[in-house]
């Protein structure tokens, strides 16, 4: 638990929550799955977000909007998200944690923690997700940019209120691949890919990787290599190699630097070929 926690706030408006969070030693509380076990001695007060009306999933013509206090488990139960992700949300969310933790952990907490191997963040990067952040004014930030500057954006009272995923238009395919100690374990390395094709040619390419750095990341140079080209097996091999080449993953007990880099190449290839197949070009 938090050894120096002495104050609990439960505001009923966003304005009040933002005012409270900007006070020294005060942090937002969503599901608490990361905060409460952290034993962070700097936390003196928490701001419960449960009464701010942020527990929604709203399907709109051009996007799906998700409130920050939505539990992760609800994502895989949303017909809108199942359709938008070509069913991948049901495959990826169970990789995050146990059923009990998924029912408690929130979208906002997931984003704020920005874990490097988080499979759902990798999938969201491939989907070009963005989020609404108050820091201190309201702004919309692409997920890739947010993860790169997460600590800076959240320091001093930043608060995430919404996640948005655009609805893909046209001939599109989404792929995901991962490796773990067991098939249902949290991934050691994972990859997700999005392709939009016109006449069999790539007009939009996104390739995201997890477990290969200090955050989930986009393989931008590899993406550009495939733009304007047919996603042939040969091209996909080149793109996967380009994605893995600059990586210098930190090693731990689950995998060495060399293993993670090698798996990034293999999984990028699998994700790209799956996206190609789902776009009808397989």
SS field, number of helical segments: 12
Order of helices and strands: EHEEEEHHHHHHEEHHEEEEEHHH
In helices, the fraction of residues equals: 25-40%
The strand order across the widest sheet is: 4-5-8-6-7
Main sheet, how many strands, which sense, barrel? 5 strands, antiparallel
Number of strands: 12
- Mean pLDDT across residues: 95
Can you walk me through this structure?
With 282 residues, this protein is of the alpha+beta class. It has three domains: 42 residues, no CATH class; 110 residues, Uridine Diphospho-n-acetylenolpyruvylglucosamine Reductase, domain 3, CATH 3.30.465; 108 residues, 2-Layer Sandwich (Enolase-like, domain 1), CATH 3.30.390. Helix content is 34%, strand content 24%. The chain has a five-stranded antiparallel sheet with strand order 4-5-8-6-7. Strands 9-10-11-12 form a four-stranded antiparallel sheet. The protein has a three-stranded parallel sheet with strand order 1-3-2, covered by helices on one side. Strand 10 and strand 11 form a beta hairpin. The longest helix has 22 residues. The protein starts with 6 loop residues before the first strand and ends with a helix. The model has no long low-confidence stretch (mean pLDDT 95).
Compact summary:
The chain is α+β, with helices and mostly antiparallel strands and 282 residues long. Helix content is 34%, strand content 24%. A hairpin with a 3-residue loop joins strand 6 and strand 7 (138-142).
């Amino acid at each position: 638990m938090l050894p120096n926690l002495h104050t609990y706030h439960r505001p009923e408006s966003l304005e009040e929550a933002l005012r409270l969070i900007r006070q020294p030693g005060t942090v937002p509380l969503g599901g608490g799955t990361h905060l409460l076990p952290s034993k962070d001695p700097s936390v003196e007060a928490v701001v419960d977000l449960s009464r701010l009306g942020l527990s929604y999933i709203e399907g709109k013509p051009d996007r799906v909007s998700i409130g920050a206090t939505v539990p992760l488990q609800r994502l895989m139960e949303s017909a809108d998200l199942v359709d938008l992700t070509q069913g991948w949300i049901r495959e990826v969310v169970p990789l995050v944690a146990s059923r009990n933790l998924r029912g408690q952990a929130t979208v906002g907490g997931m984003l704020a923690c920005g874990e490097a191997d988080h499979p759902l963040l990798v999938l969201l990067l491939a989907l070009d997700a963005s989020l609404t952040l108050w820091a201190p004014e309201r702004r919309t930030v692409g997920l890739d940019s947010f993860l790169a500057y997460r600590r800076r954006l959240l320091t001093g009272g930043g608060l995430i209120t919404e996640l948005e995923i655009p609805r893909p238009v046209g001939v599109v395919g989404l792929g995901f691949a991962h490796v773990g100690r067991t098939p249902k374990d949290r991934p050691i390395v994972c990859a997700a890919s999005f392709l939009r094709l016109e006449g069999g040619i790539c007009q939009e390419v996104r390739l995201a990787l997890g477990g290969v750095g200090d955050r989930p990341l986009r393989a931008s140079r590899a993406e550009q290599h495939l733009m304007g080209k047919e996603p042939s097996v040969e091209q996909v091999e080149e793109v996967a190699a380009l994605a893995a080449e600059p990586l210098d993953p930190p090693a731990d007990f689950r995998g060495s630097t060399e293993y993670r880099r090698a798996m990034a190449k293999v999984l990028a290839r699998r994700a790209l070929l799956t996206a190609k197949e789902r776009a009808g070009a397989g």
